[in-house]
Amino acid sequence: MHYHLIGICGTAMASLAGMLQARGHRVTGSDQNVYPPMSTQLENLGIEIINGYKAENANFVRDCTIVGNTISRGNAELEEVLNRKLVYRSQAEIVKEEFVRGRRSLVIAGTHGKTTTTSIATWVAECGGLNPSFLVGGIVQNFGASFRVADSDYFVIEGDEYDTAYFDKKPKFMHYLPETAIVGNIEFDHADIYHDLREIKFAFSRLMNLVPSNGRLIVGVDSPVVREVLDEMHGKLHATVETFGTCDDAKWQARYIDFSGSATRFTIFKDGHSFGEFETHLIGEFNVRNCLAVIIAADAWGISKEKINEAFQTFKSVKRRVEVRGVERGVTVIDDFAHHPTAVEETLKALKTKYDGKRLIAVFEPRSWSSRLAVFQEKYEKAFTYSDYVIIAGVYNTSKASELGKVLDVNELVTNIKLQGKPAMSFPDADSIVEHLAPELKEGDIVAIMSNGGFGGIHDKILQVLKET
């Protein structure tokens, strides 16, 4: 078949394009404002990308058009597809029917940590000899890809709570037929499609209710909202429920967490009894929780503790998740996808622990829908507690964000961060940030750049200026 993907450079869409090609289908797509890593992945696969959404793109004869969830009515290409009554489907629908149905599906969900946890689970399953297919919202460095189509019964997939398409407002994870589901945490996010926390909780409760009676529901009870959802669903869930966390009442607990060495070490307890000792090169308590969730799923799939530990020790992380992009003149430049205030805070906390005694400079771009809105104004003030120097970029595309509500007040945010006794300032874009920051940097500095977009290529620009001076 010939599939044409509108919005092909989105993380999920680009991965689906590669999966369909691996199945022997012909794949083309269209997008605009493309940037790595997904544009690079598609280029390496030799998949043709049309630049821009144009009505004439519908002239490409195809069997099915896949419409990305960022594509809305009024898009010239989509309107032509509808006018011509061409067959169209969502990304999640195609994944379900082409790749998930009939397999043992592990769906990994939560407000934070989905991509990293899915990547860890994939590598653990690989080291455990299960040869899993997978679909992840980022580049898994152990595989050099965000997907794989394998000949096995196992499928590991990141479960996104964002809606599926303009014509299907259910979360994407509702399509993924979980035998096992991990819900690591729940917080309010995606203010463009969810009105309040109640709607978020309802979405995750629906996922929990999908897990069959012979499956497992693995839930992180360090998250207060996860506890609330569990309480509200008491007696309604038919799967085996496995609770995990660092708290005293979780069935599976991570204890004796030690960040002092080159690796993070921790001991897992199950029902109060020692289950095993593990270590990971990932940093931060949040990654210990991610590993714990994977341990529970891997144990259910029969993977030995020895193989789990082997996988942890050889795991290479994910592109754009605390990824060191380079070191020049003793300055370390780190790229991270954090955009929700909790993720920003946890990332900076982990970096402060890892690079103890060094100056931590946080550079943040409010680019996701929720981060562009004032809904997290006060939480962002707290999010930068662990940094020593803060730069906030201008809000991305303020005119579009203002259609949804009050926009984040960057000047107010900077003023209140300054009250914490640290330098804080704002610049409109990547180039002006580089111009200001590069001369300020000195040996030993750690620059943590956080955005869920391309951020004007700021990482390479800083490294290049450092190299040239």
Mean pLDDT: 93
The CATH topology of the largest domain turns out to be: UDP-N-acetylmuramoyl-L-alanine:D-glutamate ligase
* Sheet with the most strands, sense and barrel status: 10 strands, mixed
Domain unit count = 3
Strand order of the largest sheet: 8-7-9-6-12-13-14-15-16-17
Helical segment count:
16
The share of residues in helices is 25-40%
In whole angstroms, the N-to-C terminal distance is 53 Å
Radius of gyration: 22 Å
CATH architecture of the largest domain: 3-Layer(aba) Sandwich
Strand composition percent:
25-35%
Q: Given the C-alpha coordinates, what overall shape results?
A: globular
Describe this structure in words.
This protein has 469 residues and is of the alpha/beta class. The protein folds into three domains: 2-93, Rossmann fold (3-Layer(aba) Sandwich), CATH 3.40.50.720; 102-314, Mur-like, catalytic domain (UDP-N-acetylmuramoyl-L-alanine:D-glutamate ligase, 3-Layer(aba) Sandwich), CATH 3.40.1190.10; 323-468, Mur ligase, C-terminal domain (Protein-Tyrosine Phosphatase, Chain A), CATH 3.90.190.20. It has helices at 11-22, 38-45, 76-83, 91-100, 114-127, 197-208, 224-232, 285-300, 305-314, 341-354, 369-372, 377-383, 398-401, 410-418, 430-437, 458-468, and strands spanning 2-6, 26-31, 48-51, 64-67, 88-90, 104-109, 133-140, 145-148, 154-158, 163-165, 168-171, 180-183, 216-220, 240-245, 252-258, 264-270, 273-280, 323-328, 331-336, 360-364, 389-393, 424-427, 446-450. Strands 8-7-9-6-12-13-14-15-16-17 form a ten-stranded mixed β-sheet, with helices on both faces. Strand 15 (252-258) and strand 16 (264-270) form a beta hairpin. Helix 5 (114-127) crosses helix 8 (285-300) and helix 5 crosses helix 9 (305-314). The mean pLDDT is 93.
